[in-house]
Structure of Nucleoside deoxyribosyltransferase:
Amino acid sequence: MVATGHVYLGSPFYSDAQRARVKKAQELLAQNETVVRVHFPFDYEFVDPDDPNPKAGIPSLKWQLATYQNDLTGLVNASVGVFLYDMDQLDDGSAFEIGYMRALHKPVVLVPFTEHPEKEKKMNLMLAQGVTTLIDGNSEFEKLASYDFNSCMSDPVTGYRIF
């Protein structure tokens, strides 16, 4: 099999749990024989020499523009997006990136996570109908190691109350 999958790995990266998910996803995607490359934006973060620590306060305009453009370049160069979606702490940046990928007519694999699996599962209509397939992060995360990123077949979102 020839690997053709260029993956954009999108995720919030603010909590220990989110960072651990990214690390695990990178490990799983590295095992996948259909993945050529994984682009995770925080691995390619722009550093403004005039403001080397943008997270300490308000980031410089230069950092904001470069980070935004670098992320768009990552999205454009990817053949598919994989998004580790935190259902407990929704992230506007991830939602934007998902919409951008779909506007580019590229498939999106949504991997939703929750720390409260006992609660009713609900998802916004635009997200639920906008993604190509869903791999449940709490019970199916390991599927990232074997998912066929060469074809990215559709598997619609089910099991969620859509609003």
Observations:
- Strands lie at 5-10, 35-39, 80-86, 108-113, 122-123, 133-134, 161-162.
- Residues 53 and 124 are 34 Å apart (CA to CA).
- The domain at 5-162 is CATH 3.40.50.450 (Rossmann fold).
